[in-house]
Protein backbone atom coordinates (compact mmCIF):
# COMPACT_ATOMS: atom_id res chain seq x y z
CA UNK A 1 0.00 0.00 0.00
CA UNK A 2 1.47 3.37 -1.03
CA UNK A 3 0.19 6.35 0.88
CA UNK A 4 0.72 9.69 -0.84
CA UNK A 5 2.25 12.69 0.88
CA UNK A 6 -0.51 14.75 2.51
CA UNK A 7 0.22 18.36 3.71
CA UNK A 8 3.44 19.70 2.25
CA UNK A 9 4.35 20.92 5.76
CA UNK A 10 2.85 18.13 7.81
CA UNK A 11 2.98 14.84 5.89
CA UNK A 12 1.40 11.54 6.77
CA UNK A 13 3.31 8.27 6.95
CA UNK A 14 6.08 8.16 4.34
CA UNK A 15 6.13 4.55 3.15
CA UNK A 16 9.41 5.02 1.29
CA UNK A 17 11.32 4.88 4.57
CA UNK A 18 12.47 1.72 6.35
CA UNK A 19 10.09 0.75 9.14
CA UNK A 20 7.57 3.20 7.70
CA UNK A 21 4.92 2.12 10.19
CA UNK A 22 7.46 2.34 13.08
CA UNK A 23 6.39 -1.10 14.35
CA UNK A 24 9.86 -2.41 15.17
CA UNK A 25 8.50 -5.07 17.55
CA UNK A 26 6.07 -6.50 14.96
CA UNK A 27 2.87 -6.14 16.94
CA UNK A 28 0.85 -6.81 13.80
CA UNK A 29 2.15 -10.41 13.86
CA UNK A 30 -0.17 -10.94 16.83
CA UNK A 31 -3.18 -10.43 14.57
CA UNK A 32 -4.72 -13.03 12.28
CA UNK A 33 -4.72 -12.46 8.52
CA UNK A 34 -8.33 -11.18 8.51
CA UNK A 35 -7.52 -8.89 11.43
CA UNK A 36 -4.44 -7.51 9.67
CA UNK A 37 -6.57 -6.84 6.59
CA UNK A 38 -9.11 -5.04 8.75
CA UNK A 39 -6.38 -2.97 10.40
CA UNK A 40 -4.84 -2.07 7.03
CA UNK A 41 -8.23 -0.99 5.69
CA UNK A 42 -8.81 1.38 8.60
CA UNK A 43 -5.26 2.71 8.54
CA UNK A 44 -5.45 3.47 4.83
CA UNK A 45 -8.76 5.28 5.29
CA UNK A 46 -7.29 7.31 8.16
CA UNK A 47 -4.24 8.33 6.15
CA UNK A 48 -5.98 8.97 2.84
CA UNK A 49 -9.21 10.57 4.08
CA UNK A 50 -8.99 11.67 7.72
CA UNK A 51 -5.48 13.13 7.96
CA UNK A 52 -5.46 15.33 4.81
CA UNK A 53 -8.22 17.63 6.09
CA UNK A 54 -7.62 17.36 9.83
CA UNK A 55 -5.27 20.33 10.17
CA UNK A 56 -7.59 22.67 8.28
CA UNK A 57 -10.60 21.69 10.38
CA UNK A 58 -8.52 22.03 13.55
CA UNK A 59 -7.41 25.54 12.66
CA UNK A 60 -11.02 26.57 12.01
CA UNK A 61 -12.40 24.76 15.03
CA UNK A 62 -14.85 22.77 12.91
CA UNK A 63 -15.73 19.09 13.07
CA UNK A 64 -15.35 17.08 9.80
CA UNK A 65 -18.91 15.76 9.58
CA UNK A 66 -18.17 14.42 6.09
CA UNK A 67 -16.29 11.56 7.79
CA UNK A 68 -19.50 10.06 9.21
CA UNK A 69 -20.28 8.10 6.06
CA UNK A 70 -16.84 6.52 5.96
CA UNK A 71 -16.87 5.70 9.68
CA UNK A 72 -20.21 3.95 9.25
CA UNK A 73 -19.14 2.06 6.12
CA UNK A 74 -16.02 0.84 7.92
CA UNK A 75 -18.17 -0.41 10.80
CA UNK A 76 -16.32 1.57 13.44
CA UNK A 77 -19.33 2.03 15.70
CA UNK A 78 -20.42 -0.12 18.63
CA UNK A 79 -21.13 -3.79 18.11
CA UNK A 80 -19.92 -3.59 14.52
CA UNK A 81 -16.41 -4.00 15.96
CA UNK A 82 -15.03 -7.53 16.39
CA UNK A 83 -16.09 -8.62 19.85
CA UNK A 84 -13.47 -9.84 22.29
CA UNK A 85 -10.50 -8.46 20.35
CA UNK A 86 -9.25 -5.49 22.30
CA UNK A 87 -5.87 -5.51 20.55
CA UNK A 88 -7.43 -4.86 17.15
CA UNK A 89 -9.79 -2.31 18.69
CA UNK A 90 -6.82 -0.58 20.32
CA UNK A 91 -4.73 -0.55 17.16
CA UNK A 92 -7.65 0.97 15.26
CA UNK A 93 -7.90 3.67 17.94
CA UNK A 94 -4.15 4.23 17.60
CA UNK A 95 -4.50 4.80 13.86
CA UNK A 96 -7.47 7.14 14.30
CA UNK A 97 -5.47 9.25 16.76
CA UNK A 98 -2.41 9.07 14.52
CA UNK A 99 -4.49 10.67 11.78
CA UNK A 100 -6.51 13.07 13.95
CA UNK A 101 -7.07 13.11 17.71
CA UNK A 102 -10.41 14.88 17.31
CA UNK A 103 -11.77 12.10 15.07
CA UNK A 104 -10.55 9.49 17.55
CA UNK A 105 -12.29 11.33 20.40
CA UNK A 106 -15.56 11.41 18.46
CA UNK A 107 -15.45 7.63 18.01
CA UNK A 108 -14.74 7.00 21.71
CA UNK A 109 -17.53 9.33 22.87
CA UNK A 110 -20.18 8.22 20.40
CA UNK A 111 -19.31 4.53 20.15
CA UNK A 112 -17.44 3.41 23.24
CA UNK A 113 -19.32 5.53 25.75
CA UNK A 114 -22.81 6.30 24.41
CA UNK A 115 -23.50 3.33 22.11
CA UNK A 116 -21.79 0.86 24.44
CA UNK A 117 -23.90 2.17 27.33
CA UNK A 118 -27.08 1.47 25.36
CA UNK A 119 -25.81 -1.99 24.39
CA UNK A 120 -24.67 -2.99 27.87
CA UNK A 121 -26.98 -1.09 30.23
CA UNK A 122 -30.06 -0.27 28.20
CA UNK A 123 -33.39 -2.06 27.90
CA UNK A 124 -34.42 -4.23 24.98
CA UNK A 125 -36.78 -1.46 23.87
CA UNK A 126 -34.00 1.16 24.01
CA UNK A 127 -31.64 -1.04 22.00
CA UNK A 128 -34.29 -1.74 19.37
CA UNK A 129 -35.30 1.91 19.05
CA UNK A 130 -31.88 3.58 19.11
CA UNK A 131 -29.10 1.27 17.95
CA UNK A 132 -29.86 0.94 14.22
CA UNK A 133 -29.52 4.68 13.59
CA UNK A 134 -26.65 5.08 16.06
CA UNK A 135 -24.60 2.32 14.44
CA UNK A 136 -25.19 3.82 11.00
CA UNK A 137 -24.37 7.33 12.28
CA UNK A 138 -27.74 8.63 11.20
CA UNK A 139 -27.98 9.83 14.80
CA UNK A 140 -25.22 10.66 17.28
CA UNK A 141 -24.73 10.49 21.03
CA UNK A 142 -22.80 12.25 23.79
CA UNK A 143 -21.81 11.29 27.34
CA UNK A 144 -22.42 13.94 30.01
CA UNK A 145 -20.63 13.18 33.27
CA UNK A 146 -18.27 16.07 34.12
CA UNK A 147 -19.67 19.24 35.70
CA UNK A 148 -18.30 22.80 35.88
CA UNK A 149 -17.16 22.39 39.49
CA UNK A 150 -16.54 18.64 39.61
CA UNK A 151 -14.35 16.40 37.46
CA UNK A 152 -12.31 13.72 39.19
CA UNK A 153 -14.51 13.96 42.29
CA UNK A 154 -17.76 13.67 40.35
CA UNK A 155 -18.85 10.40 41.97
CA UNK A 156 -18.89 12.06 45.40
CA UNK A 157 -20.07 15.52 44.50
CA UNK A 158 -22.38 15.31 41.49
CA UNK A 159 -24.82 18.21 41.56
CA UNK A 160 -27.07 17.27 38.61
CA UNK A 161 -30.29 15.71 39.89
CA UNK A 162 -33.05 13.49 38.58
CA UNK A 163 -36.41 13.53 40.32
CA UNK A 164 -39.21 11.16 39.43
CA UNK A 165 -42.56 12.81 38.80
CA UNK A 166 -45.15 10.19 37.89
CA UNK A 167 -44.21 8.72 34.50
CA UNK A 168 -41.45 11.26 33.96
CA UNK A 169 -38.05 12.26 35.27
CA UNK A 170 -37.15 15.91 35.83
CA UNK A 171 -33.44 16.53 35.20
CA UNK A 172 -31.73 19.70 36.47
CA UNK A 173 -28.07 20.67 36.50
CA UNK A 174 -25.07 21.64 34.42
CA UNK A 175 -22.41 19.66 32.56
CA UNK A 176 -19.10 20.80 31.05
CA UNK A 177 -16.59 19.62 28.45
CA UNK A 178 -19.15 17.37 26.80
CA UNK A 179 -17.75 16.06 23.52
CA UNK A 180 -20.25 16.02 20.61
CA UNK A 181 -22.43 18.14 22.89
CA UNK A 182 -23.40 20.77 20.32
CA UNK A 183 -24.74 18.36 17.70
CA UNK A 184 -25.64 15.08 19.43
CA UNK A 185 -29.21 13.88 19.04
CA UNK A 186 -29.05 12.12 22.41
CA UNK A 187 -27.04 12.87 25.52
CA UNK A 188 -26.50 10.27 28.22
CA UNK A 189 -26.78 12.45 31.32
CA UNK A 190 -25.54 11.10 34.64
CA UNK A 191 -27.56 12.50 37.53
CA UNK A 192 -28.20 11.80 41.19
CA UNK A 193 -31.62 10.30 41.86
CA UNK A 194 -33.11 12.46 44.60
CA UNK A 195 -35.09 9.48 45.94
CA UNK A 196 -32.17 7.21 46.84
CA UNK A 197 -29.09 9.40 46.31
CA UNK A 198 -27.64 7.04 43.68
CA UNK A 199 -26.09 8.19 40.38
CA UNK A 200 -27.92 6.84 37.33
CA UNK A 201 -27.88 7.31 33.56
CA UNK A 202 -30.67 9.01 31.60
CA UNK A 203 -31.12 9.37 27.84
CA UNK A 204 -31.96 13.02 27.16
CA UNK A 205 -32.99 14.08 23.66
CA UNK A 206 -31.23 17.35 22.86
CA UNK A 207 -34.50 18.71 21.44
CA UNK A 208 -36.20 18.65 24.87
CA UNK A 209 -37.38 21.99 26.30
CA UNK A 210 -34.94 23.24 28.92
CA UNK A 211 -31.89 21.60 27.29
CA UNK A 212 -29.23 24.07 26.16
CA UNK A 213 -25.77 23.31 24.72
CA UNK A 214 -23.21 26.08 24.26
CA UNK A 215 -19.99 25.56 22.32
CA UNK A 216 -16.70 25.95 24.21
CA UNK A 217 -14.71 27.66 21.45
CA UNK A 218 -11.64 29.13 23.15
CA UNK A 219 -9.52 25.97 23.31
CA UNK A 220 -5.89 25.48 22.32
CA UNK A 221 -6.29 21.70 21.92
CA UNK A 222 -8.62 19.24 20.13
CA UNK A 223 -10.12 22.27 18.45
CA UNK A 224 -12.25 20.16 16.08
CA UNK A 225 -14.03 18.45 18.97
CA UNK A 226 -17.31 20.24 19.64
CA UNK A 227 -17.15 20.40 23.44
CA UNK A 228 -20.14 21.99 25.08
CA UNK A 229 -21.39 23.49 28.29
CA UNK A 230 -24.80 21.91 28.86
CA UNK A 231 -27.57 23.31 31.01
CA UNK A 232 -30.58 21.23 32.00
CA UNK A 233 -33.35 23.44 33.33
CA UNK A 234 -36.02 21.07 34.68
CA UNK A 235 -35.84 18.94 31.52
CA UNK A 236 -38.64 16.39 31.45
CA UNK A 237 -38.06 12.96 29.92
CA UNK A 238 -40.16 9.77 29.95
CA UNK A 239 -39.51 7.37 32.81
CA UNK A 240 -38.38 4.78 30.23
CA UNK A 241 -35.43 7.02 29.27
CA UNK A 242 -33.66 5.81 32.40
CA UNK A 243 -31.02 3.18 31.59
CA UNK A 244 -32.24 0.27 33.74
CA UNK A 245 -28.72 -1.15 34.03
CA UNK A 246 -27.62 1.92 36.01
CA UNK A 247 -28.59 1.78 39.65
CA UNK A 248 -25.42 3.31 41.11
CA UNK A 249 -22.19 4.95 39.94
CA UNK A 250 -20.48 1.56 40.15
CA UNK A 251 -22.41 0.55 37.03
CA UNK A 252 -20.31 3.00 35.01
CA UNK A 253 -17.06 1.22 35.90
CA UNK A 254 -16.78 -1.05 32.86
CA UNK A 255 -17.56 1.84 30.50
CA UNK A 256 -15.02 4.13 32.14
CA UNK A 257 -12.36 1.42 32.32
CA UNK A 258 -12.69 0.64 28.61
CA UNK A 259 -12.71 4.30 27.61
CA UNK A 260 -9.65 4.98 29.80
CA UNK A 261 -7.82 2.16 28.04
CA UNK A 262 -8.79 3.64 24.66
CA UNK A 263 -7.52 7.07 25.68
CA UNK A 264 -4.19 5.42 26.53
CA UNK A 265 -4.24 3.98 22.99
CA UNK A 266 -4.86 7.52 21.72
CA UNK A 267 -1.73 8.61 23.57
CA UNK A 268 0.21 5.91 21.70
CA UNK A 269 -1.23 7.07 18.38
CA UNK A 270 -0.31 10.66 19.20
CA UNK A 271 3.31 9.60 19.68
CA UNK A 272 3.44 7.84 16.33
CA UNK A 273 1.83 10.89 14.70
CA UNK A 274 4.60 13.08 16.10
CA UNK A 275 7.22 10.60 14.92
CA UNK A 276 5.74 10.55 11.40
CA UNK A 277 6.01 14.31 11.07
CA UNK A 278 9.38 14.73 12.82
CA UNK A 279 11.06 11.96 10.83
CA UNK A 280 9.86 13.30 7.49
CA UNK A 281 10.82 16.86 8.41
CA UNK A 282 14.28 15.77 9.54
CA UNK A 283 14.83 13.98 6.23
CA UNK A 284 13.81 17.04 4.21
CA UNK A 285 15.05 20.02 6.24
CA UNK A 286 18.52 21.25 5.23
CA UNK A 287 20.66 23.26 7.66
CA UNK A 288 24.36 24.06 7.35
CA UNK A 289 24.32 22.32 3.98
CA UNK A 290 23.03 18.94 5.15
CA UNK A 291 19.77 17.30 6.11
CA UNK A 292 19.20 17.59 9.85
CA UNK A 293 18.45 13.85 9.98
CA UNK A 294 22.19 13.34 9.58
CA UNK A 295 22.86 15.07 12.90
CA UNK A 296 23.54 12.81 15.85
CA UNK A 297 21.38 14.79 18.26
CA UNK A 298 18.38 14.68 15.92
CA UNK A 299 18.73 10.94 15.45
CA UNK A 300 18.93 10.48 19.22
CA UNK A 301 15.73 12.50 19.65
CA UNK A 302 13.95 10.39 17.04
CA UNK A 303 15.10 7.22 18.78
CA UNK A 304 13.77 8.50 22.10
CA UNK A 305 10.46 9.27 20.45
CA UNK A 306 10.27 5.78 18.99
CA UNK A 307 11.35 4.24 22.28
CA UNK A 308 8.62 6.04 24.21
CA UNK A 309 6.00 5.07 21.64
CA UNK A 310 7.14 1.45 21.54
CA UNK A 311 7.19 1.06 25.34
CA UNK A 312 3.70 2.54 25.49
CA UNK A 313 2.54 0.20 22.73
CA UNK A 314 4.00 -2.81 24.52
CA UNK A 315 2.10 -1.96 27.71
CA UNK A 316 -1.15 -1.61 25.78
CA UNK A 317 -0.66 -4.96 23.99
CA UNK A 318 -0.40 -6.73 27.35
CA UNK A 319 -3.42 -4.93 28.76
CA UNK A 320 -5.45 -5.81 25.66
CA UNK A 321 -4.79 -9.46 26.53
CA UNK A 322 -6.08 -8.82 30.05
CA UNK A 323 -9.22 -7.22 28.63
CA UNK A 324 -9.79 -10.17 26.32
CA UNK A 325 -9.57 -12.70 29.16
CA UNK A 326 -11.69 -10.57 31.48
CA UNK A 327 -9.01 -9.85 34.10
CA UNK A 328 -8.39 -6.16 33.35
CA UNK A 329 -8.91 -3.74 36.24
CA UNK A 330 -9.40 -0.03 36.71
CA UNK A 331 -5.99 0.08 38.39
CA UNK A 332 -4.44 -1.22 35.17
CA UNK A 333 -6.41 1.28 33.11
CA UNK A 334 -5.17 4.06 35.39
CA UNK A 335 -1.56 2.89 34.98
CA UNK A 336 -1.97 2.81 31.19
CA UNK A 337 -3.53 6.28 31.04
CA UNK A 338 -0.95 7.80 33.38
CA UNK A 339 2.20 6.34 31.88
CA UNK A 340 1.27 6.45 28.19
CA UNK A 341 0.30 10.11 28.47
CA UNK A 342 3.46 10.92 30.44
CA UNK A 343 5.61 9.36 27.73
CA UNK A 344 3.45 11.08 25.10
CA UNK A 345 4.16 14.50 26.56
CA UNK A 346 7.90 13.95 26.19
CA UNK A 347 7.53 12.48 22.71
CA UNK A 348 5.54 15.35 21.24
CA UNK A 349 7.88 17.88 22.88
CA UNK A 350 10.83 16.19 21.19
CA UNK A 351 9.02 16.26 17.88
CA UNK A 352 8.20 19.93 18.27
CA UNK A 353 11.84 20.61 19.07
CA UNK A 354 13.01 18.88 15.88
CA UNK A 355 10.84 21.25 13.84
CA UNK A 356 12.33 24.26 15.64
CA UNK A 357 10.25 27.41 15.27
CA UNK A 358 8.07 25.69 12.69
CA UNK A 359 6.90 23.37 15.43
CA UNK A 360 4.69 26.11 16.90
CA UNK A 361 3.31 27.33 13.57
CA UNK A 362 -0.28 26.40 12.74
CA UNK A 363 0.91 25.81 9.18
CA UNK A 364 2.54 22.61 10.38
CA UNK A 365 0.83 19.49 11.70
CA UNK A 366 3.27 19.22 14.58
CA UNK A 367 1.73 22.23 16.33
CA UNK A 368 -1.66 20.48 16.27
CA UNK A 369 -0.16 17.22 17.57
CA UNK A 370 1.74 19.05 20.32
CA UNK A 371 -1.34 20.97 21.49
CA UNK A 372 -3.76 18.02 21.26
CA UNK A 373 -1.47 15.99 23.51
CA UNK A 374 -2.32 18.35 26.38
CA UNK A 375 -5.99 17.40 26.15
CA UNK A 376 -5.19 13.68 26.12
CA UNK A 377 -2.97 14.20 29.17
CA UNK A 378 -5.94 15.59 31.11
CA UNK A 379 -9.23 13.98 30.09
CA UNK A 380 -10.43 10.57 31.29
CA UNK A 381 -8.74 11.33 34.59
CA UNK A 382 -5.71 13.61 34.81
CA UNK A 383 -2.21 12.15 35.11
CA UNK A 384 -2.16 13.01 38.81
CA UNK A 385 -5.48 11.34 39.62
CA UNK A 386 -4.60 8.17 37.71
CA UNK A 387 -1.21 8.10 39.42
CA UNK A 388 -2.94 8.22 42.81
CA UNK A 389 -5.27 5.38 41.83
CA UNK A 390 -2.23 3.24 41.09
CA UNK A 391 -0.50 4.52 44.23
CA UNK A 392 -3.46 3.34 46.30
CA UNK A 393 -3.28 -0.07 44.62
CA UNK A 394 0.40 -0.60 45.44
CA UNK A 395 0.41 0.83 48.99
CA UNK A 396 -3.09 0.05 50.20
CA UNK A 397 -3.36 3.68 51.35
CA UNK A 398 -5.61 6.24 49.68
CA UNK A 399 -4.18 9.73 49.11
CA UNK A 400 -7.61 11.05 48.17
CA UNK A 401 -9.38 13.24 50.70
Protein architecture, described:
- With 401 residues, the chain is of the alpha+beta class.
- It has three domains: 27-119, Acyl-CoA dehydrogenase/oxidase, N-terminal domain (Butyryl-Coa Dehydrogenase, subunit A, domain 1, Orthogonal Bundle); 141-249, Butyryl-CoA Dehydrogenase, subunit A, domain 2 (Beta Barrel), CATH 2.40.110; 251-395, Butyryl-CoA Dehydrogenase, subunit A, domain 3, CATH 1.20.140.
- The chain is 49% helix and 14% strand.
- The chain has eleven helices and nine strands.
- The protein has helices at 33-60, 68-73, 86-99, 101-121, 124-135, 154-157, 253-284, 296-324, 330-354, 365-378, 383-395, and strands spanning 141-144, 161-165, 168-178, 186-193, 199-205, 211-215, 228-238, 286-287, 290-291.
- The strands form two sheets. Strands 1, 2, 3, 4, 5, 6 and 7 form a seven-stranded mixed β-sheet that branches. Strands 8-9 form a two-stranded antiparallel ribbon.
- Helix 7 packs antiparallel against helix 8, helix 7 (253-284) packs parallel to helix 9 (330-354) and helix 7 (253-284) runs antiparallel to helix 10 (365-378).
- The chain is globular and about 75 Å long.
- The model is unreliable at 1-10 (pLDDT under 50).
Amino acid sequence: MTIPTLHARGPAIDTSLPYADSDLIDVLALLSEPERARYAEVREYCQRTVRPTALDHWRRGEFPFALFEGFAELGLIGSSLPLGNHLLDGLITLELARADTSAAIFIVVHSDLFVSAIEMLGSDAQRAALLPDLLALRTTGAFALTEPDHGSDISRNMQTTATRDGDEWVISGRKRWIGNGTFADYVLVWARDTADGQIKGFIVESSRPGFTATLIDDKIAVRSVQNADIELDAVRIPFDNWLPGTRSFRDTEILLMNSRMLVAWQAVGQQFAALDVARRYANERVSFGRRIAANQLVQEQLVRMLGNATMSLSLMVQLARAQDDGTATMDQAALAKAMCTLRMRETVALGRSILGGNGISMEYEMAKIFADAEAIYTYEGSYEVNALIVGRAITGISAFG
